[in-house]
Amino acid sequence: RPTIARQAGADLFISLHADAIADPATRGASVYTLSEQGAGRAVREITRDENWHRSLNLPGRDSSVDRILLDMTQRATQNRSALLARTLLTEIEDADHPLLRRSHRDAGLAVLLSPDVPAVLLEMGYITNPEDERLLTDTRARRRLMRAVAAGIDGYFASPNGALQMASASDAGRP
Questions:
Q1: Mind listing the pLDDT tens digit for each residue in 106-126?
Q2: Are residues 106 and 33 in contact, defined by beta-carbon separation less than 8 angstroms?
Q3: Which of 73, 138, 145, 159 is deepest in the core (most CB within 10 A)?
Q4: Given CA atoms 43, 161, 166, 103 in this order, what sign does their dihedral have?
Q5: Which pTM was predicted?
Q6: Domain holding 84: CATH number?
Q7: Within a domain: 168
Q8: How large is the angle between the packed helices 63-94 and 160-171, nearest 10 degrees?
Q9: Domain total for the chain?
């Protein structure tokens, strides 16, 4: 999925999920961003291909310079992903949708591995919790949650870092 997003020229990537856990008392939404360990995995996976620099529009003349540029791109993308996560969580909380106590988490999940597209995984709640399950199956509650997600996306692109992301994508010739 991250590869498809990159090929499509995506400005961000959001993967929507419903969580499950043995404890039915656990409830609330959370947002995952790429962990440091996951970032290292992403770099290793990308650089396995001998032409990896082409997929990132890097010059390819000096592999050490390209590697530095990849690391810088990855760090900037992680920062933008964290901004997106914070913006989404603020809007979701403002919409009175319950949040998990530690609602911003990090992990090395495959859907978060793109080095140049800000990505988050949104766990909308726990299907193993009766109250969350009710919210996730209620049309009005889902609509309210998705409006909050849309507002979070708008807020992300309204921020200076989000606007910078859009401008740099346009400058790179991406749609």
A1: 998 888 888 889 999 999 999
A2: yes
A3: 145
A4: positive
A5: 0.80
A6: 3.40.630.40
A7: no
A8: 140
A9: 1
